[in-house]
Structures are given as structure tokens and as C-alpha cells.
Amino acid sequence: MSLTGSGPVSLGFRLATGNTNRHPELREVAGCPSVVDRQTDAVWLRIEPGPGLAVRARAPIEDTQDPRLEFDVVGELAVGQPRTVVLKLASPVAAGQRVETLAETDHDTARRDIIAYWEDWLAQGARFEVPETEVNHLFRANLWHALVLPRHRTDEQGVARTDLPYSNFAYGQYNADWPINQAVYVNYMIHGLRGHFAVAEAELAAMFHTQQRDDGRVGGYAEWGVYTPSLLYTVGQNYLLSDDRAAFDRLLPAALRALDWCEREIARGQDSPGAPGLIVAPLNDLTHEARAWAFPNAYFVAGLEVWGRALARHGHPRADSTLALAAKLRADVEKAFARASVKSPVVQLADGTWQNYVPCDAMTPRRLLDEWYPTDVDTGALHLSRLAAMDPRGWLTTALLHDHEDNLFLHQRGMANEPVYNQQATAYLLRDEPEAAIRAFYSMMACAFSHHQYSPLEHRWAWGQYFGPPSTDGAWFELYRNMLLNELHDPHTLFVGQAIPRAWLADGSRVAVERAPTYYGPVNLHIDSAASQGRLTARIEFLSDRRPGLLRIRLRHPERKALRAVTVNGEAWTGV
Questions:
Q1: Closest CA to 33 of 16, 17, 19, 13
Q2: Beta bridge partners of 151
Q3: DSSP-assigned letter for residue 560
Q4: Which range has the worst mean pLDDT, 141-145, 281-285, 368-372?
Q5: What would you report as the CA-atom Rg of the chain, rounded to the nearest whole angstrom?
Q6: For the purposes of burial, counting CB atoms within 10 Å of the CB of 375, is it exposed (0-12), middle (13-18) or buried (19 or more)?
Q7: Among 430, 466, 436, 427, residue whose Cα is nearest residue 448
Q8: Is 547 helix (H, G, I), strand (E, B) or coil?
Q9: Which of 42, 135, 267, 372 has the fewest CB atoms within 10 Å, i.e. is most exposed?
Q10: What is the DSSP letter of 158?
């Protein structure tokens, strides 16, 4: 921290901890004022005031329920003589010889090394750059958020372990209590879609190791019904993106055990008296009752379909039966929720009209007014559309989107209290409604991250301790990536530019994507705008020998002008 100016200066600092078993106090350690934990003598913070500055303690605060410490850095400033103060925050706390290491650490050298370390991680994966600074900043930050959270330790048996907490600030800090959030929203949506496949594989292996039960089921906090199929979904997606057979083979035994369990659950559902053909399982940590919830059924369909396609690429003999099972379950799911919707009371929309209601539980044809938020919104029936477990363009999806926009998202400008789920955005892409998807993209930027540090949030309003989950970053990046290029509409089709904001293609602008993983290998994409001259140019380079059956390109003119002519590889193209 550099201080300039003239006259006296006094900077106040407060350090607090939520751990009531720890109490900070100011001491001299290794010749320097430091904040020390009274119980363990470990150094939390080392304060190094430069010449002309000193540290002055304030009166101790005796509050066992809110342990905190306050101090000031004081001195005299003179014109042309900048003063500096260096704060070294130890992570983890420094004890023993590590105090000397902290003291010897040079600020400028450490800063340079840290920047190089994180920049190197960015350089290893895909690069996305658009003519909007905030989007580019958030793209950089969300990879770092995912990498900083895992914790590596040696367990009681001396075995190396990786812990994957949902957040550094809440919930359990050991093992992987939330497999769907870590697997789908981090290991696929960040590491998979950005090309950090080795990180994803290591974390998926850690989840299987700590959370898979003897019967093949993947457990976790509150035993959500989606945990097991979500692991199949993630391993399958990352294999389709990476084409790394060796990595897939390493995860295959655990994944096949998960597949066995899923097949047994589907077979058991055929005899379910309340919901024949559906999965009956717990929903989430707020709704424990095992019922025919849409959310688990959506992941069973999508997980089996993606896993079946991965097995087909692998040449595995269970590919056809897995795909057939996914198709049957999809038909059963759509039929059951259509029947439940017809039985449900209608709901009113903002314009005064009425429409059918699509329940979140096929066994309960009504809105669950006593617990509607976790059941209808966060993990509700719209996930069936997001994961294409029912027709995204069909009447059930239309009804769900109207209900969300007019009732469930009322006065919230298109986003839920837990924006990580953001299920409507992908539904809009699947319906090819780019303006609605772009609105969801900017709504998420506005409410899912802090506006200065780009820190991800779990909730928009209350419960401020639940911040820092990189799953929020993953949901945002998947949407961002799919707006620029995706395989959503057909696994054999690459769709480029489906929902690029028109402002990004203003005259002289460029959209650049490099080494983006796709089902057809890494892809480079550059779209350059010479709109004032009536020309938009897209250059697409496939970096492997895989190719899509169909390449679709959409160029959204900044002034909404229609295409008049198209040239592909230097020749006129008529398939517009």
C-alpha cells in the first residue's frame, strides 16, 4: 500500500474472525508488529510499515462472541516522499519456522511470481475475449475461483486426499459434500469447457473415492437424488470434449458402478405406485422427502444420454442399451409431467390470462406453497427443459417459462435468489430465443457476482456467509460459451454465434475464441466486424481431425440488418 501527500496520516484496520475459539492480539514477532492468535501463537498478519510510519494498537476488545482486533498505522507524510506499508496475510497461518519465511518474503518478488502463476493457468486453457471489459475480467476470474477452492491434505492413514468444499466460508470443508455442484458446475462447466481436463479428472476421482457407496450410488450432503447421474453426465461430457480415452478408462470402473445403480433405480421405478416409470428420490437439502421430483428425473435422462454417447465413442458394449434406457425414461418423464400438469390448478400470468401449471413433483399436481422456492425455482421442473429431458420447444416448457417470468421471478429481473441454477437461460438457447438468453446472461452478471471483485455469490440477498462458490462461475461460463458456440441443438452440429450480443459486433470490434474444447476437438473462432462497410467475417479453425456433420453460423448485425450475400472459403454460398 503506497501513501502520498503531506501532513499526518492515520489508517485504521480491523481484523475479525468468526471462530469464537480464536482471539487475535497485536504482538511484536521477529522484530515486526503482527496479529497473533492468542490460543496458538500462530501469526495471522504481519504488518511492515515503511520509514516514517508506525503501528499503534487500540484498546483491546473483549468480546468472546465476536473476536476482533483494531489498530492504526500512523505517521507523517511529506510532499514527494511516498510512504509504504506492506501487509502480509498468512494462508494458512504461520507458525514456527514459517514465521521466518513470511518475514523474508519480498513483496515485489512475491507479487510477480503470483501473477505469473495465475497467468500460466489461463494460458493453459481456452481463451475467450470480447469487446466488453467486465466480461473479460469475469472470464479470467472464474477459472481462478475454481482453482483456489480445492484443498490438498494427508489424511489420518497418511493418504493424499483432495477436499472439494462448496465454499471456503460455509458448509463442510472436507471431502466433497455437493457432488453435483462440483462435478457439473465446476469440473464440466469450467474445467471441461475451458480445457483443464487433468484437473477435472483428479477432482472427479476424488469424488468417487470419498462419496461412492458400495452399491455404486454417489452420496453427499442430504443425499440428493441427482448426485449419481450427475457424475455420469460430467464424466461423459468431458470425454466427448477431450477425446482422452486413457482418462476415461481410469474413471470408467467407478462410473460403470454408478451406471449399475442408476439402472436398478430405473427398474425399481417401473413399479412405483404413485409415479410409474419415474425416479423417486430426495430433491435437495431443504426438501428431503423422496418423490417424483423433476430435478433428479432430468439428470437421470441427461446423465444416461450423455453417458451413452460417451460409451458409443469409446466403443463400449453397453452404449446402445444405455441410450435406449435414456430414450424410454425421457418418454416416461414427459408423459408423467404432462399428465400432472393437466391435473393441476391453473395459474395466472401478469397480463391477467391463465395457463396450465407444471408441477415440480409428478406425484403432486399443484404448487407446493409451503416450500415453493427450493422446489419450483432452484431445483424445479424447468431443469427438465434445460437438460432436454422434455421438449424445450413444447407446451410444457412454454408454460414453465411464463410461470417463472411472471410469477416466480416477479420483480427480480429474470433471475432467482440462487443464480447458480439459471436454468431458463439454456432453455431459451434450446428454443433459439437469443434475446432472452442474452438478458439472462447480463442479469446473472449483475446479481451473481460482487461488482468490484467479481466474487461469486450463492444468494442474491440474505445469508452473506455463503459466498465464494465457483459453481456460480461455472453456470455463467457455460452460458457465455454456449452463446458463442455450442452443440446444444444436435450432438452432430456446431452452432457458432447463436446468441452473440449485437454490441459485440459493432464496427471495428472482434470476438476471439482460441482452443475452445468442443465435441469436434479444440476450435479457434474469430469474428471481425466491418459493419460500416457492410461486412462481417467469421474464421473457424478446427485443431483436430474431428468435424461436425453440420456447421451453423449466425452473425447478428449490430443494426439488425439482414444478410445480403455470404461467401464461404472464397465462394458464394446460397444455404442462408
A1: 13
A2: 163
A3: -
A4: 368-372
A5: 27
A6: buried
A7: 466
A8: coil
A9: 267
A10: S
Residue 221: per-residue pLDDT: 93
What is the sign, positive or negative, of the torsion defined by CA atoms of 540, 543, 545, 546? negative
Q: Give, rounded to a whole angstrom, the gap between the first and last alpha carbons of the chain.
A: 57
Closest CA to 432 of 259, 277, 552: 552
pLDDT at 206 over 80: yes
Q: Position of cell 476471439?
A: 512
- How far is 140 from 148, CA to CA, in rounded Å? 13
Q: Residue 146 carries which side chain, given as an amino acid letter? A: A
pLDDT of residue 326: 98
Distance in angstroms (rounded) separating the CA atoms of residues 360 and 275:
13
Locus of grid cell 476450435: 523
- Is the pLDDT reported for residue 410 higher than 70? no
In the chain, % of residues over pLDDT 90: 81
Residue 241 and residue 244: Cα distance in Å, rounded?
Answer: 8
311 and 258 in contact (C-beta within 8 Å)? no
N residues, the chain: 576
**Edge-to-edge strand order for the sheet containing 510-516?**
127-129, 510-516, 523-530, 535-542
Q: Which three cell numbers stand for residue 8?
A: 499526518
d(CA 240, CA 94): 44
- On whether the CB atoms of residues 191 and 144 are closer than 8 A, the answer is no
Q: In terms of DSSP bridges, do strands 7-16 and 68-77 run parallel, antiparallel, or are they unpaired?
A: antiparallel
The whole model's pTM is what?
A: 0.92
What pLDDT is attached to residue 413?
A: 62
Q: How far is CA 215 from the centre of its chain?
A: 29
Write the Ramachandran bin of 110: left for phi over 0, alpha for psi from -120 to 50, otherwise beta: alpha
Q: Is 429 helix (H, G, I), strand (E, B) or coil?
A: helix
Place of cell 458394449: 317
Beta strand segments in 274-431, E? 347-348, 354-355
DSSP string, 59-93: -----TTS-EEEEEEEEEEBTTB-EEEEEEEEEEE
β strands within 370-484, DSSP E: none
For 245-276, letters b (16+ CB in 10 Å) and e give eebbeebbebbbbbbebbbebbeebeeeeebe
C-alpha 396/C-alpha 359 separation (Å) is: 10
Which residue from 121, 165, 111, 173 is spatially nearest to 143, judged by alpha carbons?
A: 121
Residue 158 pLDDT grade (very low, low, confident, very high; cuts 50, 70, 90): confident
From CA 337, how far away is CA 384, in angstroms rounded?
10
Q: Which of 48-52, 291-295, 420-424, 561-565 has the highest average model confidence (pLDDT)?
A: 291-295
The values of phi and psi at residue 141, to 5°, are -65, -35
C-alpha cell at 5: 501527500
Q: Transcribe 96-108 into DSSP letters.
A: THHHHHHHH--HH
Distance CA 274, CA 474 (A): 36
The secondary structure of residue 531, as a DSSP letter, is G
